[in-house]
Amino acid sequence: MDIAIIAPPWVPVPAPAYGGTEAVLDTLARGLQAAGHHVLLICHPESSCPVPKASVIPVEDTVRMGRASIELENVVGAYELAKGSDVVHDNTIAGPMYSARYPNLPVVTTNHQPFNRTYNAVYGAALPRVALVAISHSHAASTPLPVDAVVHHGIDVDDYPFGAGDGGYVALLGRMTENKGVHRAIAIANAAGVPLKIAAKMREPHEREYFQTFVEPHLGAGVEYLGEVDAEGKRELLASAAALLNPISWREPFGMAMLESLACGTPVVGSPQGAAPEIVQHGLTGFLSDDDDELVACLRSVGQIDRAVCRQEVADRFSVERMVAGYVEVYERTRRRHPAAAAASS
User: Which residues contact 282 (CB under 8 A, 6 or more apart)?
Assistant: First the structure.
């Protein structure tokens, strides 16, 4: 198939630092190409994903993330570039509604964000003409909209070093926000007597305020903030960690940090929120609990987890090939039931 993948315009694919959606789209585009499909990735102009690429928005206008006018301009240009494709895989919020301008074009859209009132309204306006994909079963269950498929993210474990976890610390990877549980992680690690290294995005004013109030006073004495690490630094951090500490307090749609940690052989100790129970198998690849005292005990017992099993579980359950096959199935199903395809076969 000729597949056009439309990425959000704000961050290169893959991202130089924080950017889970962009990492997923990079892996998917490369995987689809390796499977013999023709891919056009419409993305940030500084993207390095090794597939044919095109851009709509110049670099200087991608800096202020989230501007509606730029989002709409990107969508208008992207659909014009994609109009000759067999199927469009749209990963923007505005694109699915705009796609009605191209009635002969089959469109699949993935929501990478939590479903809420706004997302339900916007995606709902595009259904059923557009096929909606959720990224976990928990994610799909959080919306009243009809979800066409659940496709878990996938990664290539060969891209991640298998680590011994002998760095003498546990790690936290994510954003500097309350729902990511950074303050809880500090308390849990301190109670367990284990040093904690925090790698987290901190760019927005609310992230800096949270850091100054709840994190900065506890730095030192076994708690270290590394800043926002790049891809290589993230993998080194995870491979040497005894565990990834992930005490989130929100219904996270997926959670790439957990997958990346397990790929390094590093078990996950965290909350059973959102997609976590779909990724972490309690007692096999980590421990899940909403009780912080239990998480302290789990952290002390993390040496019982076989790190080789953690890595193998990712290879078996969250491979690139499984993700690609899941999306190809959605693409083909969407094409078959599209009015243009039905008219051509009659």
Answer: 272, 288
Instruction: Yes or no: say if 247 and 174 are a contact pair by the CB < 8 Å rule.
Output: no
Three-class SS state of 272: coil
Residues 6+ apart with CB under 8 A from 225: 198, 200, 211, 215, 216, 219
Sequential DSSP letters for 222-266: TEEEEES--HHHHHHHHHH-S-EEE---S--S--HHHHHHHHTT-
Q: What gap in Å lies between CA 299 and CA 276, rounded to an integer?
A: 17
Q: And the tokens for 310?
A: 């953690």
pLDDT at position 16 is 81
Which residues, in sequence order, are CB contacts of 221 under 8 Å at separation 6+?
A: none
Q: If you write DSSP's letter for every residue of 15-51 in order, what string do you get?
A: -SSS-HHHHHHHHHHHHHHHTT-EEEEE--TT---SS
d(C-alpha 236, C-alpha 240), whole Å: 6
pLDDT top residue among 339 and 313: 313
Cα–Cα distance between 79 and 90 in angstroms, integer?
Answer: 9
Alpha carbons 290 and 286: distance in angstroms, whole number: 14
pTM of the model: 0.93
If one counts every other C-beta atom within 10 angstroms of the C-beta of residue 45, the result is: 15
Confidence class for position 346, pLDDT limits 50, 70, 90? very low
Q: Are 107 and 99 in contact (CB under 8 A)?
A: yes
Residue type, 196: L
Digit-coded pLDDT (tens) for 10-37: 999 998 876 689 999 999 999 999 999 9
Would you list the DSSP string of 301-336?
A: TGGGS-HHHHHHHHHHHS-HHHHHHHHHHHHHHHHH
Query: Is 214 within 8 Å of 188 (Cβ atoms)?
Result: no
pLDDT digits (tens, 9 = 90+) for 192-239: 999 999 999 898 899 999 999 999 999 998 999 999 898 899 999 999
- Residue carrying the six token digits 């779909």: 278
Give the dihedral sign, CA 179/319/332/13: positive
CA–CA dist 150, 166 (Å, integer): 36
d(CA 92, CA 83): 16
